[in-house]
Q: What sequence folds into this?
C-alpha cells in the first residue's frame, strides 16, 4: 500500500533537487561528490520539503492564536535529523528509491550526519522525544535551549580507558538550522541595581554597569508524523553586543569590550558533561540565565504582538521547566512583568504562578542545584532581589501554616544557609510539580519533598516518561516495524496501544519464528557494527545481554561486571558446566571527573580483554564495550538486544527510558523494582520479566536506620569474596595490582562501614546471579522466549511519549490541538 503522504512527495522533484544542490553547493556531479556532500545536498532537499509545512503551521498558529507550551531545557539530545525527518514526512520509500536511482545508499548517507548531542542522557533525550510527540499530536509547542558549540564529548577508548574528545558537531554546518538574527535579544549580567522614583511615585528598578550578550536564535524544524505540522526547537547562540571600534576606545571601554566578547564566546562554548552531579560552576549559571532570559523575553514579545493585557499571559503561555536548570525563568518573568510592564508584585505573581510548572528528574541529592548567594547576587543582581522577595513571602506563608516551627523553614526556605535552592524556588512558585514514574513520584511525596507535598498536595502529580516509537522502532528497527505493520496495520505509529493486537501472535509458532529471525538479523547488524568499531567478533546466536546508559554508581554497571567475573570463574573451574553462550554488551560515558565511573570502564575493558582472549572457554562469554554510546548507535543496539539490564539500586533511578526502548524492541527486562521498571512489569506480567534485588522500601529503610554490613557478605559468600579479591590481586591489572582498589574500597571500606557499598551491590549480588540463571533457562526454551519477547512488544504501548504528552496536556498545560486547513 502506498501511503497518502508518500504520494504527495514528489520523487522526481526531489531527485532533481539533490543533483542541483550537489552542483550549486560543490560544483560537482553526483559521481564526483563525496558522501558528506551528498548528505548535505539531500538534507537541503528535505529541508525544502519541510519549509512549506513549517510556514503553514506557524501561520496557522498566528491566526488561531492557541495556547503554547514552551519546553525550557538545558538539554535536547536530538541525535540525527535527516532520517527522522524523512520518516516523519512519510517519505522514506520514495526517498530511498530516488537515492537508489541516483546510485546512493540511504543508510550510508544518514551515517554522514553527526548526532546533535546537546544533552547528557535521559533528561535530554526525554526532551527530544517530547518534541516529536508534541508535533505528531498537533500541539503548539516550542523547545527552548542552547546552541552549544561543542555537545556531549565523543568517547574514545584507549588501552581500556575513556578519553574525551571534543564534539565539533557544527564542523560541516547544520543544514536544517535557520539563523534568525531579527529575533535577537539582549541578556544582561552583573552590575548593580538603582532605584528611581518616577513622577507617579512609582519605584523603577534599573540594572546598571552591567555586561551584556546578544542572544541569537537558531530554529530547527520539528516535523510531526504525517500531519503536516512542523514545530520549532529554538536554540540560542551568544554574540558580543558591540564590535570593536578601536578608534573610539578609551581604556575602560576597551577592557569592557574585551570582557563582553569573552563572555559571549564562553557562554555557549560547551555542554556540561555531568549527569546527576552539581558542581556550582559560575559559567553554568550564566548559561542558564542566558537562554532563559532570551526565551522569556521572546515569549513575552510574541504574546504582546497579538495581545494588549500582559496580565493574561498565562492564558496563552505555559513554561515547563525540565528539572531545576531553567528555574531562573520564574524570577526573570517576574522581573519583566514588573520592571518592563509595570505590573505590581501581586499582579506579576498571579501571572507567574499560573505560567511555570516543574518536572523533577532525580532524587539524587548530589544533583540538587544550590547556588551560593554571593555568586547568584553578583551575576544576577535584580533577579536575586526578586528571589529574596519570593523567599520572604514564602517563609511568611510557612510561618502562618506552621507557627513556631523553625524546622520547617530550615527545610523549605528558598534561601537558606547562604544558598539559593532552585528546587524550592520551582516548587514554591510553580503551579505544578511532577515526577517521572509512579514510584519516583511516590518517593518524592513521601521522602524528598514531603514537607512541600504536605503544604501543597494539589500541585503534585505523576507523569510516567515515554519514548517515541517513530525513532526507536520505525526508524531504528525497520524489519520489526514492517513485521508489525504486516500483522496489525500501521496505526501503532501514532497510537502505540494498538500493539496489544500482537498478543494473539505470542503463541503462534510461525510468528515466533519470524520474530526471532528478525531479532537474529538485527543481531548480525550489531555484530557487524562491533566488528567494524571494536575489532571483536561476536556470535549472533549467543544471548545479547546489554547495559547501555550513562555510567553512574547507582546504575550499578559494577554489579554487572562483577557477575561476569564470577561467571568466568565458574567456567574456569567447571569447564563442562552447561552454559549458554553470552555476549555482554556495555555502552556508557562517564563524567570526565568521576573517578569510580572511569575506573569501572577500565575494569569492563580489562575483564573483556582477558575473557575474549581466553581460548579455554571456547568463546562462551564475550564482553564488548561499545565506544561512544549515542542516539544513533543506540537505535541499532536496542533492535539487537535480548536482555535489557535495568539494575539500578531500587529508589535511585527516577524512571529510566532505555528500559522502554528495549521493551519496544522485544528485549526482556532483567531489573530491580525501580523507576518505570515497576510499570513495565505491571504491563507485561512478572512471568515475562526477570526481577531481583532489594525493594525501594528496603533500600530506604537501610539508608535511614542502618543495619547493612557488606563485610558480612564478604565473609560468608565465597563467590563474592573471590571476585572482590580479584579486584586487588592483579588478576585484571597485572602491572598494577592496586589499580582497581578504589572500586574494592567503595564496596568494602574497612575503615568506615557506613560509607561502604552505598548502592547495595554486594547485598543484591546473589539475587542478581540467581536472576541471571533464570535468564539462561528462559532463553533455552526457544518458544517460551519468543513468546515473552513478543509479549514485551505487545505490552509496551503505555510507554509511548505520545501518552505522556497527552497526560501533560490534560493535567498541566491545557492545550488544544491545532488543525491545519485542507490544502486547496
Ligand atoms: C543534572 C545536572 C546537575 C548539575 C550538573 C549538570 C547536570 C546535568 C544533568 C542533570 C540531570 C540529572 C537528572 C537526570 O538526568 N535524570 C534522569 O531523567 C530521566 C528522564 O526523566 C530519567 O529517565 C532518569 O531515570 C533520570 O536519571
A:
Amino acid at each position: 500500500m502506498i501511503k497518502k503522504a508518500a504520494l504527495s512527495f514528489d520523487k522526481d522533484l526531489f531527485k532533481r533537487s539533490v543533483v542541483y544542490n550537489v552542483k550549486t553547493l560543490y560544483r560537482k556531479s553526483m559521481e564526483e561528490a563525496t558522501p558528506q556532500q551528498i548528505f548535505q545536498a539531500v538534507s537541503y532537499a528535505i529541508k525544502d520539503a519541510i519549509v512549506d509545512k513549517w510556514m503553514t503551521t506557524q501561520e496557522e498558529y498566528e491566526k488561531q492564536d492557541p495556547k503554547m507550551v514552551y519546553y525550557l531545557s538545558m538539554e535536547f539530545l536530538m541525535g540525527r535529523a535527516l532520517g527522522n525527518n524523512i520518516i516523519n514526512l512519510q517519505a522514506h520509500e520514495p526517498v530511498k528509491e530516488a537515492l537508489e536511482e541516483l546510485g546512493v545508499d540511504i543508510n550510508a548517507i544518514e551515517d554522514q550526519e553527526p548526532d546533535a548531542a546537546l544533552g547528557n542522557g535521559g533528561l535530554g533525550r526525554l526532551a527530544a522525544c517530547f518534541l516529536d510527540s508534541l508535533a505528531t499530536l498537533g500541539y503548539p509547542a516550542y523547545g527552548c535551549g542552547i546552541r552549544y558549540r561543542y555537545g556531549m564529548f565523543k568517547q574514545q577508548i584507549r588501552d581500556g580507558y575513556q578519553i574525551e574528545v571534543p564534539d565539533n558537531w557544527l564542523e560541516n554546518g547544520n543544514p536544517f538550522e535557520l539563523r534568525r538574527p531579527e529575533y535577537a535579544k539582549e541578556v544582561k549580567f552583573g552590575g548593580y541595581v538603582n532605584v528611581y522614583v518616577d513622577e507617579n511615585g512609582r519605584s523603577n528598578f534599573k540594572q546598571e554597569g552591567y555586561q551584556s550578550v546578544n542572544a541569537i536564535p537558531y530554529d530547527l524544524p520539528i516535523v510531526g508524523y504525517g500531519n503536516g505540522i512542523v514545530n520549532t526547537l529554538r536554540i540560542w547562540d551568544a554574540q558580543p553586543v558591540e564590535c570593536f571600534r578601536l578608534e573610539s576606545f578609551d581604556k575602560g571601554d576597551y577592557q569592557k569590550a574585551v570582557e563582553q566578547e569573552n563572555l559571549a564566546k564562553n557562554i555557549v562554548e560547551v555542554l556540561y558533561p555531568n549527569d546527576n552531579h552539581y558542581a556550582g560552576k559560575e559559567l553554568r549559571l550564566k548559561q542558564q540565565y542566558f537562554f532563559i532570559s532570551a526565551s522569556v523575553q521572546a515569549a513575552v514579545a510574541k504574546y504582546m504582538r497579538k495581545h494588549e493585557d500582559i496580565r493574561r499571559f498565562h492564558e496563552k503561555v505555559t513554561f515547563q521547566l525540565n528539572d531545576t536548570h531553567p528555574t531562573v525563568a520564574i524570577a526573570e518573568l517576574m522581573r519583566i512583568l514588573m520592571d518592563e510592564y509595570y505590573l505590581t508584585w501581586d499582579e506579576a505573581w498571579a501571572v507567574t504562578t499560573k505560567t511555570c510548572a516543574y518536572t523533577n528528574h532525580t532524587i539524587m541529592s548530589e544533583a540538587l542545584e544550590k547556588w551560593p548567594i554571593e555568586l547568584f547576587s553578583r551575576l544576577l543582581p535584580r533577579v536575586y532581589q526578586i528571589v529574596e522577595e519570593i523567599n520572604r513571602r514564602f517563609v511568611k506563608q510557612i510561618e502562618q501554616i506552621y507557627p513556631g516551627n523553625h524546622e520547617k523553614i530550615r527545610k523549605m526556605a528558598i534561601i537558606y544557609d547562604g544558598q539559593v535552592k532552585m528546587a524550592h524556588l520551582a516548587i514554591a512558585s510553580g503551579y505544578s510539580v511532577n515526577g517521572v514514574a509512579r514510584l519516583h513520584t511516590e518517593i518524592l511525596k513521601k521522602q524528598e519533598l514531603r514537607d512541600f507535598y504536605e503544604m501543597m498536595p494539589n500541585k503534585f502529580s505523576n507523569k510516567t516518561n515515554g519514548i517515541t516509537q517513530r525513532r526507536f522502532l520505525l526508524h531504528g528497527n525497520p524489519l520489526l516495524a514492517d513485521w508489525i505493520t504486516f500483522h496489525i496495520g500501521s496505526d501503532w505509529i501514532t497510537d502505540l496501544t494498538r500493539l496489544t493486537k500482537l498478543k494473539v501472535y505470542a503463541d503462534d509458532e510461525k510468528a515466533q519464528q519470524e520474530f526471532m529471525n528478525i531479532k537474529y538479523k538485527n543481531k548480525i547488524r550489531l555484530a557487524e557494527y562491533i566488528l567494524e568499531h571494536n575489532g571483536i567478533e561476536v556470535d549472533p546466536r549467543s544471548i545479547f545481554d546489554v547495559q547501555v546508559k550513562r555510567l553512574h554508581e547507582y546504575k550499578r554497571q559494577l554489579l554487572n561486571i562483577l557477575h561476569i567475573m564470577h561467571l568466568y570463574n565458574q567456567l574456569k573451574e567447571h569447564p563442562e558446566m552447561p552454559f549458554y553462550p553470552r555476549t555482554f554488551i556495555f555502552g556508557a560515558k562517564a563524567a570526565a571527573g568521576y573517578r569510580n565511573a572511569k575506573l569501572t570502564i577500565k575494569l569492563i575493558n580489562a575483564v573483556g580483554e582477558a575473557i575474549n582472549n581466553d581460548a579455554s572457554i571456547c568463546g562462551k562469554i564475550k564482553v564488548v564495550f561499545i565506544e561512544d554510546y549515542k542516539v544513533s548507535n543506540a537505535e541499532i543496539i536496542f533492535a539487537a538486544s535480548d536482555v535489557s539490564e535495568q539494575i539500578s539500586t531500587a529508589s535511585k533511578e527516577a524512571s529510566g527510558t532505555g528500559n522502554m526502548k528495549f521493551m519496544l524492541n522485544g528485549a526482556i527486562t532483567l531489573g530491580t523494582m525501580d523507576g518505570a521498571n515497576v510499570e513495565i512489569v505491571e504491563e507485561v506480567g512478572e512471568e515475562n520479566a526477570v526481577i531481583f534485588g532489594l525493594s525501594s522500601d528496603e533500600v530506604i529503610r537501610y539508608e535511614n536506620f542502618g543495619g547493612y554490613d557488606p563485610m558480612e557478605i564478604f565473609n560468608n559468600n565465597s563467590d563474592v569474596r573471590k571476585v572482590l579479591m580479584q579486584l586487588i590481586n592483579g588478576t585484571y591489572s597485572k602491572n598494577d595490582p592496586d589499580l582497581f582498589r578504589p572500586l574494592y574500597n567503595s564496596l568494602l571500606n574497612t575503615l568506615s562501614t557506613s560509607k561502604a557499598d552505598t548502592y547495595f551491590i554486594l547485598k543484591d549480588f546473589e539475587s542478581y546471579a540467581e536472576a541471571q540463571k533464570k535468564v539462561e533457562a528462559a532463553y533455552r526454551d526457544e518458544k517460551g522466549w519468543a513468546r515473552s519477547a513478543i509479549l514485551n512488544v505487545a505490552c509496551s504501548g503505555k510507554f509511548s511519549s505520545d501518552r505522556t504528552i497527552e497526560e501533560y496536556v490534560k493535567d498541566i498545560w491545557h492545550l488544544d490541538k491545532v488543525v491545519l486547513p485542507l490544502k486547496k
Notes: The chain has two domains: 65-80+115-465+809-813, 472-694+760-799.
